[in-house]
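Weekly modeling sync, notes
Attendees: S.R. (lead), two postdocs, one rotation student

Agenda item 3: backlog of single-chain predictions. S.R. asked that every request posted to the team notebook include the full sequence so nobody has to chase files. The rotation student volunteered to paste the first one in as an example of the format we agreed on. Action items at the bottom.

Example entry:
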Amino acid sequence: MKKSLLLTTLLLVASFSYAEVLDFTSGVTIDTNYDTFGSTATESGISFSGSDLGNVVSAYWDTAQDLSSWATATEAIISGSMTSAPTSVFDVILYDSNFNTVTLSGGSWVNISNVGSDALVIPANSFAWNDVTAFDINTGGAGETVTGTITNISIVPEPSTYALIAGFAAFLFVAIRRRK
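Predicted structure, as returned to the notebook:
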């Protein structure tokens, strides 16, 4: 019984850690050849300030990121804070080591300013999710000033993941209850 309880607990913890996160608070280097915002990478995230008209935050990770579970996801959440947020939108472009790309679209500076995060659409494609090496955040507004810090992007687990978590929780509850 103890082994089954331990296994269930481990599976439940693994389910909660399912959502892989692209962390911008460590292991990130600004690519000064392409970054037009004059961004800085700190332990708080990536900070930037400038015109939202065609500027780019460009950076890469010190080691490739394995985001294999993102291959079937349809939505990601970008988190951060804004001190100046125009009403324009932005996209996040991810690169693999062969410079293949996938574009996460539909980000809004205002949503990050108001609630600290915003949803991005992940298109279905054959991107190498296990080898993400760099990213760009592209703006395309009317030239207003945008100032903020982006901390991470994480996927929104599929409904089947929530069902799996609920099933493990129910099994764990029954196992504990029977033990008593």
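Discussion: group reviewed the output briefly. The chain has two domains: 1-18+157-180, 20-156.
Action items: rotation student to repeat for the remaining queue; S.R. to check formatting next week.
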